[in-house]
Fold each of these.
Amino acid sequence: MTFDPAPDLLSLPCVLMRGGTSKAAFFHAKDLPSNPAARDATILATMGHGEPRQIDGIGGGTPLTTKVAIVSPSADPRADVDYLFGQVVATESRIDYAPTCGNILSAVGPFALDEGLVPAQDGESTVRIRMVNTASYCDAVVQTPGGRVRYSGDTAISGVPGHAAPVELRFSDILGSSCGALLPTGLPMERIDGVDVTCIDNGMPVVLMRAADLGVSGSETPAELDANAELKARIESIRLQAGQRMGLGDVSAKVVPKMTLLSPALAGGALNTRTFIPRKCHDAIGVLGAVSVASACVVPGTVMHGLCAIATHAEQRLHDLSVEHPTGEFTVRLLMDATGHAIAGAALLRTARPLFRGQVLVPMAPLTF
């Protein structure tokens, strides 16, 4: 039966997908207005904005569930599809397109295959993705037995219940994705407000600090850290200054750089982390944020010195690093170049699945096109 929406509601094709430990509304670019202002007004009305619960939209009321992916065929010969990520800032009625999101990236390959943007192969299919926000690339390897995406499997990731089919993300050209260099300031370590920091960008701009230097252990829960107003004020002061040093300009209204506190591993990993995104402590850690954190472990002279334990596969020039976070761990594999001293690539496993596919209904009243 064909659904005919009320005349004051706009009907848009939409797929809500979980990617890693986040959720996003997925749209085809062709289904959204081509004018950026009109597009953003439509997305904000879809997600629900102006109040934190997003009760009049499909947003989940938290940064991890208030995300958007806009996907289209790519004109770039190195990619099959373009992926534009948007972080909806509900209470400010705006969308931040500065960063990308690695968790949502893990759902882009399955979405592209399900929607026929890329033909599926029998066995597994590789979807070449251009991350529009950072002009970088990722190959997503998706399980497709019989030419159909398989979502069930035996891969478990921290922060998501149960098991699912793996999606392998193989990154390239992400060094300096937003800042132009792996070490945007040119220094592996410097001091801001009397605190040693490392500013790094391997897919995500991140500022690394030892938790002990800020008077905490690094094993606190996110709620405990969020309740520490003095700590958060110090971190934000460092973030604003680091943003300028990293070439990001005034970051007061941006969600980058992310701020990560480091401490010794608690469960056998390489190190333990607590990440602010940017003013709320993350229940886990972002995909590309974890890649940047892991990368600092193999760069001499960073704040990681004495904190990081690395599993090395010397014959393959590989480093496996388990980055612990409040709800588990995230294993990042770094590929080194022939010298063994420079990072050539990164890979990791995520899982994803669609949660609903259909039409989302958007009130026409706030739209101006």
Amino acid sequence: MRIFHFSDTHLGFNDLEILNDQSINQREADFYDAFTQVIDAIIEIQPDYVIHTGDLFHRPHPSNRAISFCLTQLKRLSVAQIPTIIIAGNHSTPRTRSASPILAALRTLDHIHPVFEEKYEKIIFDNISFHCIPHINDEAGNLSAIEECEASIDEGKYNIMMLHCSVGAQFMMEEYGERVYPKEKEALFEQLDYVALGHWHGFGSVGKHSNVYYAGSTERTSSADARNDKGYAIITLGDNLNVAFHPITLRPSHRFRVDALAVEDIFDDLRSKADSFPCNGALLTVILENLSAIQSIDIANRDIEACFPTALNVQIQRKFRRTESSAASESVTSASLQEYFGAFLEEQSSTPEEAARLGTKVSALFARYEENSRDA
């Protein structure tokens, strides 16, 4: 028996304010493309069952476009008569019970089984049971759902548990309402053939449990995710459990680090990196480390971006070397920041001419900031 496991598709996600030829946010379109690739793979593979472990949408109230796109793609699975179970994640769950859950719309599709009512639910087929615990805002309700699952294991069938939470981690993603699975309840996993997880965006097994896996997300929601492959997992049940990850094709994403203390010319290093990596249409993060304040003022973002003319977007992070002066500046009030910064640059400048040039730049920057503050 084969089960197709994917998760955290975050349909409707958008950022960067870049539009494509159809006037759709380019990153939003990327998430739709990733989802389409997964649905194409399902139609081609024809698994026995499909499971999605939460965060189908990025928001509990997605746009009309996101809803329409999702229904159109899931209709393909409905027509193919592939049983598909989808649980709600924290992103797709309303924060109040008075709001209507968006996953209720999926009930209009045959063979699609959405689970979103903040309680344990078992989806039963002839030879397999899916024990579903969607995102539950109430902590006591979450524990009650786990205990109900413990009492509902079916003998003589495959038993699959579906969760959207952190398992085996003592830290959080700092998102609204996210849950950590109680460690004292992990013994339940031994009674299950497979535990399908959503919430964390990287594929992989969890700790000592050989049958507990995150499928990961199908797209990247942050630049910190640049090195993670995205895709889906094929689960084969039989005498032995087999879990195989299959990547999909995404827009390239790279992180470049430049140490200002280790290179003679930052821009030469950046141009070299641009020649060494496929940057066409890519999402890039450039991290400048060990910068001095003088170096940073002389390095304009537009000049960094010009090193990667074919990239979709270049995100720039600046990390300054720590000096006694910079440590002292942490206690300076915002009212005296311009004066203090000007004095610091004068101290660091090698000539009066350089100090005057940088001082002019600082004055212009603070004037622009004040102008923008008045307009806000």
Amino acid sequence: MPAWVGTGKWLLRELRANQDPFGLAAWVDNGADDHAALAGVCRAVLDSVGGYLQDGFIRGEKPSSL
């Protein structure tokens, strides 16, 4: 598969011409108005590389007064 070296519309062309494992090109082709579908695509991309970086992250102790 050739490497993508462009910007903007070229990414979409490369996704259509090659394997698009997350369905991003299909989301664009369907009008790109379904925000829940985009969130699903983003979650799939994140899950493929180990998940959301801050999942389960706790920054210190929660104060008892909260």
